[in-house]
């Protein structure tokens, strides 16, 4: 049942092209009209939404952060992303025009369930993005968008994460269409780019030997930092979380722009730092800024491990290792940039002899607060 892989985790990492393809399958017409699995909210209410709050924990919350960038850009609706356990205890501002998007692989995470219930009590509508059919969170939600990643057995989330991000993009396109923020042609172009993602994930997987090789040389590493910017920021956080969970190595993700505000003090000779570099084709100047961050940490002795877009030669001079991902629009890049980080954590943990499917102290679904 592990399909020839040594662990469920490895299998699930390799399932990702299919997981994303399944989540896209039959969902969105070229006009962006999304087939939601269950819709107990009137579309006119969705049109009136003036704020979205994404509630989730752990990896699912990082999917929510990616969703924020896409939905705000496409739909011009403010999106807050909040950890479910923080939301409920801070007297949040929620009303009938708030759409809460509860993201949960298991659909049973107690904190997310309780936060969604609380939001409903305040009059908000809840839309669940969930991987487990019939679980509690989607049962109680007003609308449901299932991720079709298939059962995720390994405790650490991989394919569910990419499927959650994919589902969130579809939701963004749907809201953009419904509210008239996106033209049909724009939606069609984004859907066409999304349709190409599964094959690109496969390319990343096929090219992952060097990542694995590097991971095996780093079994004695005590700390790894991850830097990212824009949608690369949640990817950095996710890369750090995978390494903590699986390899029990201290890891931190930072927004690259924060470097000078503190984290650069951590850089000393030999400190490994992953840097997720935005596409040089992006219309903002973020690529140059992140490249200059790589220079700064390299000058202080960091071992720089760079994830960059194919053809980005600017990073080579400052990178000890570069792993390339295929070209894709910036907002969709997390679906590719995350993959080498998952492979790295899985391989490093395996090299240390750890059980990657059942990391110590963790449970697949956290049904207590
Ligand atoms: C990380 C991981 C956890 C879960 C979190 C939320 O690899 O698996 O951080 O993402 O416990 O779980 P769900 O998505 O089931 O609500």
TrEMBL record:
<keyword id="KW-0315">Glutamine amidotransferase</keyword>
<feature type="active site" description="For Fru-6P isomerization activity">
    <location>
        <position position="364"/>
    </location>
</feature>
<feature type="domain" description="SIS">
    <location>
        <begin position="214"/>
        <end position="359"/>
    </location>
</feature>
<feature type="domain" description="SIS">
    <location>
        <begin position="41"/>
        <end position="181"/>
    </location>
</feature>
<dbReference type="GO" id="GO:0004360">
    <property type="term" value="F:glutamine-fructose-6-phosphate transaminase (isomerizing) activity"/>
</dbReference>
<comment type="subunit">
    <text>Homodimer.</text>
</comment>
<protein>
    <recommendedName>
        <fullName>Glutamine--fructose-6-phosphate aminotransferase [isomerizing]</fullName>
        <ecNumber>2.6.1.16</ecNumber>
    </recommendedName>
</protein>
<comment type="function">
    <text>Catalyzes the first step in hexosamine metabolism, converting fructose-6P into glucosamine-6P using glutamine as a nitrogen source.</text>
</comment>
<keyword id="KW-0032">Aminotransferase</keyword>
<keyword id="KW-0677">Repeat</keyword>
<keyword id="KW-0808">Transferase</keyword>
<keyword id="KW-0963">Cytoplasm</keyword>
